[in-house]
Amino acid sequence: MKRVNLKLVVAVVVAAFLISACGKKDTKACTATPGTTVASDAEKAMVIKYLDSMGITTRTELSGSGLYYVIDTAGNSKRAGMCTSVTVAYKGYYRNGNVFDQATAASPATFPEISNLIEGWRRTLPLIGEGGVIRMFIPPSLGYGISGWQNPNTGLYYILPNAVLIFEMKLIAING
Question: What residues does the PPIase FKBP-type domain cover (predicted)?
């Protein structure tokens, strides 16, 4: 009777399992939600004061949240979901006009899943289709809140705490 090499049998079984797992898509259902945060009255007042000072009167508040937006171009009928990857060009700045971040059409940003973004983006990106352009006026609690966004190594802030964030964004592509 032939002797069976146990290590070889285990290696073959493991290899077969790994190969069979390759190429399978994750079929886990997307359960992410855009969020339901409502800004405080003080935060809402900061956003409204900015909008009024800039003469932005054709604005829409999203469900009483304190998050305001203006859709400049609706885009096509394709809409992104919470677990969708998107490619965007955007400019983010403070009320004083200082730009804190941007990605141009020539060098856009791709985000693997909308659900991983700040709540202000999660709630407004699905309002436009590919090719759409939107301006978002995000109160702190729907942005980076009281913590801001800080470099853990230097302690310097990428985004200041309690900042109203303004974004001009073009949705270039909905990926997948």
Answer: 83-175
Q: Are 37 and 63 in contact (CB under 8 A)?
A: no
- pLDDT at position 9 is 38
Contact 46, 139 (CB under 8 A): yes
Q: Residue 65, exposed/middle/buried by CB under 10 A (0-12, 13-18, 19+)? A: buried
Question: How many CB atoms within 10 Å of residue 41?
Answer: 9
CATH topology of domain 29-175: Chitinase A; domain 3 (3.10.50)
89-120 as b/e: b if 16+ CB within 10 A = bbbbbebeeeebeebeeeebeebebbbebbbb
What angle (nearest 5°) sits at the alpha carbon of residue 35, between those of residues 30 and 38? Answer: 175
| pLDDT greater than 50 at residue 155 | yes
pTM here?
0.81
Residue 24 to residues 19, 29, 70, 176, Cα–Cα distance (Å): 10, 15, 41, 16
- At 52-84, the pLDDT tens digits run 999 999 999 999 999 999 999 999 999 999 999
